[in-house]
Amino acid sequence: MSLPDFFSAAPDTHRIFFMRHGESEGNVGGILQGRSDYPLTPLGKLQAEAAAGWFLDQNIDLVLSSPQTRARTTADIVRHAIRTSGHATAYTALDGLSEVDLGCFTGLTMAEAQRRHPEIHRRVQYETWDAVPDAEHSESLRERAIEIWKTIIDRLSEHRNVLVVSHGGFLQWLIKTGMGADHSRWSLRFHSSNCGIHECNVMRRSNDHVVVEWRRINMVVAPPEGA
Q1: 209 vs 93, which has greater pLDDT?
Q2: Residue burial 203-214, b: 16+ Cβ < 10 Å; e: rest
C-alpha cells in the first residue's frame, strides 16, 4: 500500500476523526439499512452524548456528516455539546457521506438476505460485494471515497480538526482508501461500532513530505452506567 495522492495537498498538521452514527432502530432489528432512513434509539442518543463529551477536548472546528437521519442526529448532538462549551464549529451535510446503497439487500436482515438470495449472499461472503444487483459497486464506492477525502483535505485550509460522521459500510471505504488499499474486493474490512471513533493524523514535514498516522481504530466511549 502506498500513500494516496490526495494527501499531498494537506496544508499543515491536522487531525481527522471518523465516527459511525449511534444505534438506530434499524440496528436493533438487525436490518441492512443502506439508504433507508431510521432514527436513533434512546441508547443511540446516549452513545452520541458520550462521544460528544470526549470530543470536547479535541478542538473540533468542522463537522461533516451524512444527511441521513441517524448520522445527522449524531452529528447534531456532538455539535450542540461543542457549542455549549463555547467553541465555534462549522457544519456541512454531504450526500457523499451517505451509506452504501445495498440494492436488493436493503431492508432485510442478513438471515433474510441469505434465505431469499442464497447465491448472491454466498458470493458477497466469499467473492465480491459487486454480486449484489442494484447495489452501489466497488468502483463507485472507491471514487466516492476519494472525492470525500479530497473534500476533507480541501477544507483543511480553513480548519484544523475535522469530525466526519457517516455509516459502517461507507466508513470501510473511507478508511481503506485513506490507507491506500486495493478496492477490487471487500478483502480489507474495518468494523465500526455505533459511535466507534477512528482517528487519522496528517502531518506535513516539508514541501514534499507528508506523514499519515492512524492513531485510533474503532474507539468507543461508553455511556455512563445507569444513563
Answers
A1: 93
A2: ebeeeeebebee
